[in-house]
Amino acid sequence: MSFRSMPSRTVLLGATALGLLVSANAQASTWSFGLMSDTQWIGNTDLANNPGTSAISIVNQVNQQFINSGVKFVIQDGDLVDSYSASNEAVRAKAAQTLYGAGIGFYPLRGNHDAPNNGTASLLAVQNLYPQMTGAGNTFGAGNFVVNAATGSYAFDYNNTRIVMLDQFTGAPTGNADPLKGTNVATQLNWLGAALSTATNPDPGVTNSFVIGHKNLIGGNHVDNLFGANPSSNPAVQNTFFQILAQNKVDAYIGGHDHMMQLDRVTSPDGATTVTQIISGSDSNKFYVPAGTAPNLNGGKTNAEQYGRTQDVLLESLYDVGYWIFTVDGATVDASYYAAASGATLQSGEYLMSVTPTPLNFREVYTVSFSYGVTAVPELSTWAMMLVGFAGLAVAGSLAKRARAVA
């Protein structure tokens, strides 16, 4: 596991009054939800524990962490399996039964590995395995479902928090200079705005919101993203997307795809809007590194630099298996990242883990806070503690635990 040092200062992002960053004990009782990243398993080793090209050995251990923490539901941001088939998806769906048995909901999203040829057949298969994606079956307390029947995107509310799961894989790829143009979210902007708006989609109690996709606004590793083949794709669509998130005070956009963890701030092509992005990490057996570093040299540039975009990376953690727990306290959300060393080694350009460690020893790495679109990351003293902690992984949990900025 590694952790790259970022600027050593408190960073407050957004225009909301600083007082909103302080958790108020007088608010309604706290509750939490979990975030799981890609669960692919590739290669020919340890298949008995990881059938169906899915990292079931990791899923089972992360599920138990969610159960131990008492989360209300779990979301996954795509790539449930490495190689799509109905039978492989069924293997992954069976592993979610552990959560259901504990009274915890599970809300998945397709990734590119779940969506061959970007057609609707795989969408219908996945929705059949997870009827909660359309608001059917046992939704474990979630409500106000809004479904985009044409694309499979869906939104729901739990308590005072709105979750939008954005599926980008129903468009047909095009053969022009942007071969992934057909898989961007251009046709879903109106739906997204309506799903997020409490005026169009009424719920006066909603104070927090998150938008989840598989691909990122700008990837740490992958150049393809939510809008097409690279960060310069479809700038007008990007500008509108960023504006929609800002106007609806979305706390963060969350994506997977990169098999690494980053917390960053991404600015729209026109420079008018900045959005907080979480690249969730990896719950698979493969891991990547940021563009611009070996073995992904990319001319020594990040993807943002390569395409003239602005992306400020605040936090980063590599080569680890990780998950998130979001604790909601009224209008404030604390997002805690937990990680375990994977022991992955570089193999043909990817860092791969051949056998899942049992148990995975998860430690809390840090906590960031969101409130009405404002984000806080750890201050100077906390940075120092975390860096020392990661020099000696055995004590990282005690040094970095519950680190947060105080307004």
Can you put this structure into words, describing what you see?
The chain has 407 residues and is of the alpha+beta class. It has one domain (2-400): Alkaline phosphatase D (PhoD) (Purple Acid Phosphatase, chain A, domain 2, 4-Layer Sandwich). It has helices at 56-69, 86-95, 97-101, 121-129, 189-196, 235-247, 303-306, 380-391, 396-400, and strands at residues 2-3, 11-13, 31-36, 73-76, 105-107, 143-147, 154-158, 161-165, 208-212, 252-255, 261-267, 274-280, 286-287, 311-318, 320-329, 332-341, 345-347, 350-352, 363-371, 374-377. The strands form 3 sheets. Strands 1-14-11-12-10-9-8-7-6 form a 9-stranded mixed sheet. Strands 2-20-19-16-15-3-4-5 form an 8-stranded mixed sheet. A 3-stranded antiparallel sheet has the order 13-18-17, with no helix packed on it. A hairpin with a 6-residue loop joins strand 6 (143-147) and strand 7. Helix 2 (86-95) packs parallel to helix 4 and helix 5 (189-196) packs parallel to helix 6. The longest helix has 14 residues, at 56-69. It is globular, with a radius of gyration of 19 Å.
